[in-house]
Request: fold
Amino acid sequence: MEFALVAPLLILLVFGTIEFGWFFFTQANVANAAREGAREMAISGNLSTAKTTATNAAQPTSVKLSDVSIMPAVCSPGNTVTVTINVTYPALTGMFGKTF
Reply:
């Protein structure tokens, strides 16, 4: 009887921990991909190469070239490069919704 009352809470806690871990991994992976794209843009100055580098660095997630935007399009010494990656977070367990 007690297990029937505690089991849903325990399952919710376990699935919540799994989802949080997956979300944290995805966020860190996308942040690293943006960093790699900015580095490539600063080194080569080639927009398409920088987008491809950012897309390849975010491999476990489904990032496409159209999800990556880099500003400014032409990099010159002393300028700041901003890389933005838009990702729809896929839920792993589906217990809290399909996407975030």
